Prior knowledge:
Blueprint: H1 3-10, H2 12-22, E1 42-44, E2 50-52, H3 53-57, E3 61-73, E4 76-86, E5 93-96, E6 105-106, H4 108-119, E7 137-139, E8 144-146, H5 148-156, E9 165-167, H6 168-174, E10 193-195, E11 200-202, H7 204-208, E12 216-218, H8 219-274, H9 279-330, H10 333-351, E13 371-381, E14 384-391, E15 401-403, E16 408-409, E17 414-419, E18 435-441, E19 448-449, E20 451-455, E21 460-465, E22 471-479, E23 482-483, E24 489-494, E25 504-505, H11 508-511, E26 545-546, H12 561-567
Parallel strand pairs: 16-24
Antiparallel strand pairs: 1-2, 1-6, 3-4, 4-5, 7-8, 7-9, 10-11, 10-12, 13-14, 15-17, 17-21, 18-19, 18-22, 20-21, 22-23, 22-24, 25-26
Helix pairs in contact: 8-9, 8-10, 9-10
Amino acid sequence: MSQSDQKENAEQPTLVSEHEHSGVSVNPRAVCNVCKRLFRDPKILPCLHTFCSDCIGQLEPFSVSSRRGEAVEEDRPAVAVTVTVLCPDCDSEVDIPPSGPDGLSTDHLALDEVFLETLVTDGPLGCDLCGEGGAESRCEVCCVNLCEFCCQAHRRQKRTASHSVQCLEELKTRGRLCRPVLCSLHPGQELRLFCQPCDLPVCLECAATLHRDHRCCPTRDVIDRHGDRIRELVSVRLRPRLERLTDSLQKVEVSQEALQARVDATANEVRTFARGYASAVEAHCLSLLHRLEELRVQRRNQLHLQRAQLQQALSDVRGGVEFAERLLSCGSDAEILSAKGVTLRRLTSLAESSYDPHPATVAPDDGSSISFMAMEPAGELEGYPLVGVINSKTVDLSKCTIEGLQMGREGQQGHFTLVCRDSAGEQMARGGEHVLVSVIHKEKKNCTVETTVVDNNDGSYSVSYTPEEPGTYSVWVCVKAQHVKGSPFILNVKRKVRRHSGTFHCCSFCSSGGAKEARCGCPGTMPGGFKGCGHSHKGHPGKPHWSCCGSTVEQSECLPPSVLAAVSPRSHLRTVEL
């Protein structure tokens, strides 16, 4: 740090004090949140929060880890120590490089804010060179404030004659500072080039010496490519996530209000019911309110935890997005490239975070399961029978049961009932649950069956379906987007019932009046050229049977030809009309 910068930093506490004394508000972007003073050598932490280098160095270590590197002396390998601290703003665990805070990226935007803050102070600025006269100009290359005499001397010197010197009054009217970013190794040299192998902005002297074998190109040639990476993370991934987090947080806050409103309404019902009783009933009323308060505290704590998690995630993403957008909109090419590394790492970390709730999946408990059952027996107190209990039953998916899910029939409507139960196995006394039922063919995935779910408002739900094809189906039964115990279930659907087309008779000889060409579905045969069956002849079933299939059961299904071929020693034709 140059003497002028050190002198400027040394005067900052007085500057903030003068602001506070005069009632002028200080730009928060120019003030460190740790020391509450204007930034001194501001550094960017991996979480994209900026603090003074000295303030970062004074943070208490959260953890310390060491890693052995290459040997610098015989039998003495180098040890790199990484210190992890907690960010004072967001409490994130961030690693400090082995070189300390100096290894962090400098926040040049913060330096711009500090200088702009010094321009709007009421008191005059002193000359950074002589320390006597009032500063009227500023060298944008050396970053020093100059009085009129020192400004003339600055222009006469050969080394600084080409520097850009601006009037302080003109800078005040701009409202924004555009100053070059100088090389820390070669004072006075601006970072105009970008070393691609090292991924760093460099000056001309660095490119000619330290990076002479590297591919260096002007910053204006690479700023679009690197800036687009930051811009893509913000617009494509983080902006939509920021909106989702905001919507989710709003949903939780609305649920908190709904929970309180529901509790208050239930409490009013309890008080109205209990006013007509004597001291025993009044005691019972107090016990009911106590139970209701316990439920409120329990549900409120759950919502508070969810709200805190969403707020933290929202704060992290908002901070990253705001920093990145400010860097892209306010920073110069060198400023963007200087902070590119830490910015991309933070934005990528935020974009890949596992905690990314979608508003459609956020279902906070708004107290809808809490209700007052006025006529429910509640025992006795001092000999008085009491009624009225607080009901907070919730559905236990492991206790829900399916009733009536049996064999289905192609083209015929089937039915079964879902019974929602609580953790004690008792049927819920109310409806209103979100029930989803899907019936899918196991072999033909595109074959689904339309289902209808009817809420019976007593904890049971009637489900109807009509399969159009025979086969084995999977029946998915979900409550609150989760499977009940046993789901998916197996449903076997038989083909349509085949009606008999023949005659239920004793034999084809009798039914046809002795026609030799009359055939029968049974395997019976007769001698003398008869093609059908007769009493007591070979293959006759010995009882009345169907002429179309040979079945001996009158109230039965007609077997298909494939089944007949499998059970018959010979192929049978259907009987002619008898």
